[in-house]
From TrEMBL:
The keyword Signal applies. The lineage of its organism: Eukaryota, Viridiplantae, Streptophyta, Embryophyta, Tracheophyta. It comes from Datura stramonium (Jimsonweed). PROSITE patterns: LIPASE_GDSL_SER (PS01098). This is ATP-dependent Clp protease proteolytic subunit 5. Coiled coil: none annotated.
Amino acid sequence: MKMKLFSYIFLLLSSIVIALADRLRQPYNVNDIIPAVFVFGDSIVDTGNNNYLVTLAKGNIPQNGKNFMGGKATGRFCDGKLPSDILVEQLGIKELLPPYLDPTLEAKDLITGVTFASAGSGYDPKTNALLSVLSIPKQLELFKEYIGKLKGIVGEAKALEIVSNSLFIVLSGHNDIQLNPASILNPSYIDIMVNFASNFLQELYKLGARRIGVFGVLPIGCMPLHRNTRGGIRKNCVDSLNKKAYSFNTKLSTEINYLSNKIPDAKIVHIDFYNFTFDLINNPTKYGYKVTKNGCCAFVGKIELLAACPIACSNDYEYVFWDGFHLTEKGYRLLVNQVLQQHLRAFISYTPALMFAL
């Protein structure tokens, strides 16, 4: 009798522990309010779309995915998960956010969201056009295609409901600033970028998006690639790049405020990426980091060569950056946690207005 009672108590306690562990891993579980997540942007949120493009901008080198499921590269420019993955995981929607171009996607994958992001892309269609990546305007065209597929799966009324209630994330602009020649040659290029971003957000709204989170850019001048190549002996941050990034963020935030007043039946939020990353870099021990000037996945002599390396370090948890451009999964988790703490309440408390057609 005692053994049966002990077994019952043990099973009960085990169930509670498992439930609590799952709750901690997915602390928000708001998928009854936010049914899906759709992401647009660059390599920071591209979970593998470029694998299906004829381009050199691919993240499937062997070193990537070191801490991913199975330890294999999937096209993610990271040691593990990206913000797009972590976001759907934390919201309790699904484990990973798949790339839209993956030909093996099933209906259930499409219904709960995908990423249209493409490594190397930007708001400007001319940014890295020679790499044949998906610019933000091209990603919008794919979203239009997606809506047609969604209607075929769940019907027009349900498709309307899913789109209007879903969370849309936009994260772009890095490549426009650091890789587009116009960023150097045209003094008003930042304004052009903001105009591209504004047009995209308005088109997204016309297609049914109502909950939209728009990231600014991180302090680009503090990326290891730029510090190692333009930061001098001490590998300082490159102020000229940071000034452009800060200017873009400020003007983007102003434009988002304008759009919020122009289209009050949508919730458009500017998400600060700059100050968060700057704090990671300037106060590394606060977050358990030691190395800020180099990436874990570095080239010979700890010099970053774009997003490629012959070997990755073993102590990646001590590095803010995974490679010359991208944070580690640890950094992205800190980012997503902060974003959800600051903005999730605003998104879930907002009730999208009814629409009649997509």
